Structures are given as C-alpha cells and as structure tokens.
Amino acid sequence: MLDALITSKTRLKILLKFFINPSTKGYLRELAAQMNESTNAVRVELDRLVEAGYLERNANGNKVYYNANTGHPLFKDIHNVVKKYLGIDVLIDSVLAKLGKIHEAYIVGDYAKGVDSGIIDVVIVGTVDYSYLAQLIEKAEGIIKRKIRPLVLSPKEKTKYKEKLNLDKALLVWHNGK
Predict the structure, then answer these.
(1) SS3 63
(2) I need a labelling partner for 99 at 20 to 30 A (CA). Which of 17, 46, 141, 174 fits?
(3) Domains of the chain with CATH codes
(4) 132-169, pLDDT tens digit by residue?
(5) DSSP E strands: which ranges in the chain?
(6) CA–CA separation, 60 vs 119, rounded Å?
(7) pTM of the model
C-alpha cells in the first residue's frame, strides 16, 4: 500500500524508521547499515525530508543525528499511516481490546526502533486469557503478515524488568484501555 505511494524504497525505510516511534534518532552511517543502502542514497533522502520539514537534523560532536519533527503539522497523520502500514493498528484492536484486564501494552525491539524486521515484540502489562491471546495472535499474524511475540507481565514484574526491556524507549500503544 504505502510502497505504491512512496516509490523510493530508501525514503520509505526512513519514514518507517522515524515515524513509528518519535523518540528514534539515527545518524547517516548507522541508518545506511540498518537499511542495507548506500550512504549516498540515504543522505539524499534525509536531505529531502529535512528540507520538507518532516525530519530534524541536529549535530552532536562529529555526528549529525536525525529524528522525526513531531511539531510538523502532518506528523500525527504520517505516524498513523505508518502504524497502519505495519499493521500495528490491527494488532492493537484485534489482540488487546478484549483480551483481559490490561494496564499497558508496549512494542519493544526492532519495531520500537523503527526497523521492520518482520517480528513484532509486544509487552503486555496486566492479566490476560492466554488461550484467547494465542487465537488472536494467530489471526492478527495472518492479517499483517508479521510474526508477533508477546510477553505478559504483572505490574510488579514490569517494574522489575523495566530497564532490561528498555521500556523507556519502547512504543506505548495501549494504556488503561486507551
């Protein structure tokens, strides 16, 4: 869907990287390596997106970091389109809405960093019906064509493993039923 609209594969990878999680930052060589693209191709697209105002550029020492411009009027719209493209909206609605007493749900790992690895790691905080969770995940995986790996924690376990799971940099996708 989105790849038909955005014909530059490099630009699409950059948009996915930065607009899935607004706290994601990256520099040229790192991005080129992650995307398996030439630094020149990545630089050209970064420059275009900065010029259009979609990305911000900040120098830190000898590296120039890029991140999504959350102040851009279209930020929320692009963020929502990226979520739909990756299937996260389907995951949230299908897997979490009627699952149990859920306090929070996070996307961690590659997707939280804006990397489409084909595996979505989800941390669910609360109590769930595990057999229902398995059914919903199977259905969602068929729809979004990506593997979903859930981890269910109690609120106490969340506190214990928060640092190890890097939840501060995770993508919060559900909070008290919202």
Answers:
(1) strand
(2) 17
(3) 2-77 (1.10.10.10), 87-175 (3.30.460.10)
(4) 889 888 887 877 788 999 999 999 999 999 888 888 88
(5) 25-27, 55-60, 63-68, 100-108, 119-128, 147-153, 171-175
(6) 32
(7) 0.57
